[in-house]
Amino acid sequence: MSTATKGLEGIVAAQTAISFIDGINGRLFYRGIDINELAEHSTFEETTALLWYGDLPTRKQLDSFRRKMVENRLVPNEIIALLLLLPKKTTPMGVLRTAVSALAPFDPETGDNSLEANVHKSIRLTAAMPTIVAAWERIRNGLWPVTPNAQLDHAANFLYMLTGKEPDPAAARVLDQCLILHADHGLNASTFAARITASTLSNLHSSIVSAIGTLKGPLHGGANEQVMRMLLEIGNLDRVEQYMRGAFAAKKKIMGFGHRVYKADDPRALWLRRLAESLANSSGNRRWYEMSERIREIVQAEKPLPVNVDFYSASVYYTLGIPIDLFTPIFAISRVAGWTAHVYEQYSDNRLIRPESEYIGPMNVPYVPIDERE
Ligand code: ACO
After folding, report:
1. Which of 86, 261, 331, 359 is the least crowded, having the fewest Cβ atoms under 10 Å away?
2. Dist. CA 19–CA 206, nearest whole Å
3. How far apart are CA 99 and CA 332, in angstroms?
């Protein structure tokens, strides 16, 4: 009988004080604060400060934090030059992974692994990642990147850098709430990847590169793009039932459903559902929202699968006019707040993360000289 735990299910691999998931009751807390409170009242900048420093900032602390984020939005010209060299077909997640890696030697504290230096690096990285994603969107469309707008908050500035136009404040607030909702989530796969890299005492940038590569996959952050592709493939409400029956018959996984930890619906998904509904109403296009509702009804009648964060975020981003392959990069520009908080936590009480494997291959196989092999 195997002693391996496939997918490490149920294994507690770290202690954390950053976020807590109550998977049975469908609740999520950052530093003890309910995610619903944060989505309602906070901003991405304030939530990031909460995750990094452990407490909600005072007004003065938040002002200073926001200023530092604004001051670090520009990326070195060499990074833009690097983006210009990449093939236009490079995925935005691939671009982000490459650019974050390339940013490391430009960071003035790259060789310093103290907590203070790592917080400085995290500010620079969190401020720069939206600039990279937006610059790539411009460059691949033959346009020059838009200089960040210091008057705008993090989320609004990202939308501004995509189009060069100041976004509608309501749309910017929706994106801000999405960033809050995605900022941390226990020991999810990408955060674990970041912590494994940090546990070797590799540096913060390397940890974030590992995390970006891990988030990209369709079983993790990449699912939001797949949800939108599914909605587009189905096309309209009348076709949902038939499509879902076909998907079940083919034993396809339905993107945006299922979760390793949640047994109840993911509370982030329920918030995103509200945002999807209000955007559907304000945009006058209820198609994606209504299709999503119908899909959820059919899936949950078939299997007791919780809806996860990636399901409604798809139609939210699409209705905001964001290109589909930027959905997962948006996840990354939020989750970097959690990844970096976990890197500090890992360094603060480090032990190399090194599980074992159960060997199931052959033993005592003789080495056959190359000329005698068949
Ligand atoms: N659609 C249909 N069936 C599903 C789904 C789904 N989305 N998710 C799980 N199941 C079924 C599996 O087929 C399996 O059934 P079986 O026991 O009859 O074989 C059972 O539920 C358990 O599924 P696993 O894949 O073993 O569960 P695991 O905990 O390993 O995976 C995961 C969790 C990867 C999220 C899975 O539910 C999935 O692939 N979902 C779709 C992709 C997705 O939405 N990912 C985003 C997750 S949230 C995030 O990472 C940000």
Report:
1. 359
2. 22
3. 13
Asked whether residue 14 carries a pLDDT value surpassing 90, the answer given is yes
In a domain, 22, yes or no: no
Can you name the residues that pair with 27 across neighbouring β-strands? 22
Answer whether 95's CB lies under 8 Å from 145's CB: no
Average pLDDT, the chain: 97
How far away, in angstroms, is 234 Cα from ligand 1 center? 21
Closest-CA residue, ligand 1 atom 50, reads 220
Domains contained in the chain, number:
2
219 CB under 6 A from ligand 1? yes
Task: Decide if 45 is inside a domain.
Answer: yes
- 48 CA to centre of ligand 1 in angstroms: 29
Q: Is the pLDDT of residue 2 over 90?
A: no
CA separation for the pair 191, 210 (Å, rounded): 9
Cβ of 272 below 6 Å from ligand 1: no
Q: For ligand 1, pick from 219, 245, 335 the residue to mutate: most ligand atoms within 8 Å of CB.
A: 219
Instruction: Please give the number of the atom of ligand 1 that sits closest to the Cα of 220.
Output: 50
Distance of CA 247 to the CA centre of its chain: 26
Nearest alpha carbon to residue 186 among 39, 317, 38, 28: 28
Gyration radius of the chain's alpha carbons: 22
The pLDDT value recorded for residue 225 is 95
For residue 229, being part of any structural domain is answered with: yes
Q: What are the tens digits of pLDDT across the range 174-230?
A: 999 999 999 999 999 999 999 999 999 999 999 999 999 999 999 999 999 999 999
Q: How many CA atoms lie within 13 A of 128 on its CB side?
A: 24
Residue 303 inside a domain? The answer is yes
Active-site residues, by number, are: 259, 310
Per the CB < 8 A criterion, the answer to whether 145 and 161 are in contact is: yes
**CATH code of the domain containing 307:** 1.10.230.10
Mean pLDDT of 316-321: 97
Query: Vertex 211, ends 65 and 109: CA angle to 5°?
Result: 50
pTM beyond 0.90: yes
Backbone angles phi, psi at 159, to 5 degrees: -60, -40
| Mean pLDDT value across residues 124-144 | 98
In the chain, the N- to C-terminal Cα span, in Å, equals 34
